[in-house]
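Task 17 of the worksheet. Students: predict the tertiary structure of the chain below and write it out as structure tokens. Keep your answer in the requested format; marks are given for formatting as well as content.
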Amino acid sequence: MTQSIWDTIANTPWWVYVIFIFLLRAGLSATKPRTVPLRSFFVLPAILIPLSLINFFIDVNLTPTNVGMWLGALLVGILLGKVQFRLLRIKAIPKEAKLHVPGSWSLLIVLLVIFLTRYYYGHEMAIDPDVLKQPKWMMAMFLAYGFFTGLFIGRAISAVRCVKSGPFVATA
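Model answer:
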């Protein structure tokens, strides 16, 4: 059964659009400089870690290879999340658990890529539930979920370090 993109969009549950609008709004607000509480750096890891683990226990078989791919991508994501944090020149506000984040399009891009990856994955699963039995799909899924989870964990680790030891915003 061949399905057009328009059929897919028309049959998408309403709550997927709510999530898309929320992610779009969050990504667009990140394009402007802002001050955010430290806890905001833990929201996406708290969402992405369970989503990744759901794939292990519900969608596919838990094998050492799958776990290894996920862990490898997670470590690369953590490293790149730390690099991204430094490149964005995020600074802590002295004596507060808050950070000054300059505007950047990177969060919007990453959130949209995550959304589109999950959307495409869900679309393929709806059309052919056996798609996950194909090694290329399994590998791509574990690498993507591990990487994106790691990216936000790396940013959260860097945020904690920044609040504790700087760099800090210059005070007048």
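Marker's comment: Residues 62 and 141 are 13 Å apart (CA to CA). Strands lie at 34-37, 91-92, 98-101.
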